[in-house]
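Minutes, methods subgroup
Present: GH (chair), OT, SY

1. OT presented the first of two proteins processed in the latest run. Sequence and structure tokens recorded below as shown on screen.
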Amino acid sequence: MTDGRLGPPALSVIIPALNEAENLRSLLPALRETLADLELPAEVIVADGDSWDATPAVAQELGALVVTQVAPGYGGALRAGFAAARGEYLLTMDGDWSHEPEVVRALWAARSKADILIASRFIPGGQAEMGFFRGVLSRVLNVTYRRILDLPVRDLSSGFRLYRRQILAEIAPQATDFDVLQEILVKAVGCGFTVGEVPFCYRPRSAGRSHVRLLRFAAVYVRTLWRMWRLRNSVASADSDSRTVGSRIPG
């Protein structure tokens, strides 16, 4: 895969991974093919969460740069990837085949439409193939966050995203767990950046066990909601004046 050694790459793909060797063996070649078809000078970064399988070795063998996260959790993995990335655009995706490399085409094609693009399960054309309980939980959490935080986004918990590099440098996300995804959106919208969505179909992981523990996942989101509400309702938000009238956020 193109690594941009002749200059900064246009795109850095960041894949948080914990014990994903089996999935990366097929995912990384498929991603390489997609990037080659797009003729993109790109680099692929695997942020390893101290895997005890062959994840680092497989990723290196297939041409990815491997970085070891220092801070814990999903947020720590993203920050490790962000710190190592050199591209003008940064794309984050999972390493378990729940995020199809083909969707990168749609995200890249729409890059001029918004500062952050989200591959969304919950807009027309999107779909989520998951168990009933997880599906209901995901929709409830997304609707709750969207309404309370007054964000113009339907899929706040999708980690399949394309960012302009400058945005992440400016907002400096700090959250440790999966709530980093909402933190990024709240800070970005508050700074006046735009967010768009493109539809995609979420499918179950190809191999291995999910690292998401549903009850813990929900508990983290509930604990974070108050912090996100305070941040979103801050006068520092770029759209605070426009939300004074008609906002769903209690004043």
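2. SY then presented the second protein from the same run.
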Amino acid sequence: MTSVRLPTDLEHKLAMIARKKRTSKTNVIREALEKLFTQEDTEQDSYALGEEYFGKYGSGDGSLSTTYKHKLKEKLNVKYHSH
């Protein structure tokens, strides 16, 4: 058995929901915890959610993440020194 102390505002909200559903506060808490546990079990991290898209629309150049500063300097030099 577990006991929980709730702040007054949560206690009032819990009581209102229990009255509205015509059930006990215990049942409302149980339902809420079951939903939370189900959500936690099915929730994926952001990497897992986007993994299939990583590199899908890439340029095919695997060095871009390490040479971007050099490439940017080249483009800026061409832009400002070509006149």
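Chair's summary of item 2: Residues 45 and 51 are 10 Å apart (CA to CA).
Next meeting: continue with the remaining queue.
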